[in-house]
Amino acid sequence: MAFITANWNPLGEAFYRKTELYEMCWTLRDGLRDSLVAAAPYGGPIALLREPLRRSPSSRPQLEIYSASGVGIASFPWKSGPVVQLGWTVSDELLCIQEDGSVLIYDLFGSFKRHFSMGQEVVQTQVLEAKVFHSPYGTGVAIVTGSSRFTLATNIDDLKLRRLPEVPGLQGKPSCWVVLTQDRQTKVLLSNGLDLYIVDNTSCTAVVPPGLSPQAGSVVHMSVSFSYKYLALFTDSGHLWTGTSNLFTCLSVCLPVCLCIYQPLYLSLCLTRCRRPKSQQPSVVLMWDRLLLVAGVCNDTIQFPLEDPCVLIGELDGVRIISSTNQELLQEVPLVCQDIFKIASMAPGALLLEAHREYEKLSQKADEYLREIKEQSMLGEAVKQCVEAAGHEYDTNTQKSLMRAASFGKCFLTDFSPDQFVSTCRELRVLNSVRESSVGLPLTHAQLVYRQFYPLAIEICRYLKIPDYQGVSRVLKHWASCKVQQKDLSDEAIARAVCVKVGDSPGVSYSDIAARAYECGRTELAIKLLDFEARSGEQVPLLLKMKRSQLALCKAVESGDTDLVYTVVSYLKNEMNRGDFFMTLRNQPVALSLYRQFCKLQEQETLKDLYNQDDDHQELANYYVTASYKEKRLESRLSLLQSAVDEYNKAKNEFAAKATEDEMRLLRFQRKLDDEKGAGLLGLYWWLKLKSLAEKEEWEELEKFSKSKKSPIGYLAFVEVCMKCNNKYEAKKYVSKVTPEQKVKAHLAVSDLEGAADAAIERRNEAEMGAVLSRCSASDRLVIDRLNRARAGAAKK
């Protein structure tokens, strides 16, 4: 086991190792010099732009995209403006930030997707430096301009630019700066001479890191950890400060060593997650031209010589080191691996691994090792250690040794659950497949899908037994979305291929695939794909977006969903002129019928236009009859009825025409009676209805009737009729509506002596006061006194 620890390097109580991930497949003539390099996290792709500030139109820089193993994915000449920075989003989209503040976005395969600007003022002042960062809101971009102002966009998918306050005394760009995300806030930490500032949305605040003395000099390099929890500062005097990113806690201050008399080219924090609590302490990786140095929270360091220029990429559990020839991962050795492989280790896992080695040699020492583990009752723990350690190892032979040792130990356990062992076996087979140089991909199946290794992604999903809607269906959806972009195939061929491959897979929406086809300018293909969509509610919105409104209306009618039909009809009404709109509805009787029902309730005038458009004389006549009942003036009413008679005649409905003419004669006769009898006829109707409703005790209807229009018989009648039916409660409702001349009578009718007295006194009517007094008894002394005083006062005047 000594060979496994050969590349381990101690740093305090921990060990660090460099593991070679790939011998790079690319051929870079000039290495990584004079190039902008950006690598996506989690072992993602690498973008490289040579001589990014070259401005000669005859010799343009080349933008190249590679897999993590250096396999070429895309390459094209850069024809836009000078590039200041490259970066990757969380979904592996490449951001190219230009001097003029434009940010161009490309997909993994070099296809342009979209662009946005960091502000109009940046065009004049130019971008001096830029950084791409990841926050809780998504991928963000930060820039510093020639006017020494910072501008942030915390989420490029929901672009909201924030211009930060000015920094006192800052001329040009700062010595160094980083973006921090704390408590869901994004801030900038920068160095300007001997001063450090934190700039947020509203203020610029000077800060002093605890434990860093003024004699340490100016901060010339700074770096934040992958999780944005820790921060490292390097000064021009060679001091290295490490602490929390909120600058509240200092973890260590390393004193200058001879290596630090020159400023490093790169500074990166390395933090490995494992079980030992002290492993949560960060280490700092510094890189010079020919040297890589790892400094811990103590003054211990590890030095690695470098042969070629390199780029450091921070990861969740280490730092990737990319050179022109190979790629390595520098990380702390996981605790479980240290326990097993450390020389002279007596950990249960180490003993079990040794027992299995002796067993393979047919040596009786295997039994001795097993017996020692069993005596400590640690055989279950030994198996778990071997399984866990196998997951941390990159070498397949080491993985096999550990898993075989775990399988060997498992044979001597009766109640050991095999779930962890089985799942680790599956995961290792997947990991080893995607780590192949020809693939060079991250670990999750989602990232596999995005890189268009569809067969491999599907096999992984099935092998890991991921539910179809989370696994295979997602792969097929992504495959179909890419398939519709193939320009060398006809619409018919692509639609057929998608149908055959996708079929009825759960969770795959043909409307989503069709939407992608439409975005690519293939409208006919989108329509063909929508034919496979079973849900009309998904078909119709996209058809409307594609301006295929008549087809959308057909689909909505076929669905039988009235709400969907109304949605389409409403859209058509707003988009078309009235004539075309009506002609479209004539071809869809169901839609026309539904729209007529809507118009009857909401748009009466539109209903008339519809009947006119269709020459539907019968319905038009009915419309005029209905409209006549809403008219209060007799002349208007008769005019509408005459129009109805004309339309009935055109519809050859003699009975309806004759009945309408009779109605007109009756209205004229009623007017004549009203003129001769005054309000008598109408009053008679009100009396009859009032008595009828009261006798039936339909009090709610009676109240509605009283409010329908002004009563021609007044409201005292309502009071008297209600009292006659012994309902004082209802009678009181109408007392307030009675005219002042009848107020006293109304109050007396409901036995309200005080109210009657108030009304009589207010009117100063001697007769009414007397009428109230005649109804008072001896117990109504207060009312009698009030009335007598009022009568006396009226007599004096």
Automatic annotation (TrEMBL):
Residues 5-422 form the Vps16 N-terminal domain. Plays a role in vesicle-mediated protein trafficking to lysosomal compartments including the endocytic membrane transport and autophagic pathways. Believed to act as a core component of the putative HOPS and CORVET endosomal tethering complexes. Belongs to the VPS16 family. The keyword Lyase does not apply. Residues 508-684, 685-781 form the Vps16 C-terminal domain. This is Vacuolar protein sorting-associated protein 16 homolog. It comes from Amphiprion percula. It is a peripheral membrane protein.
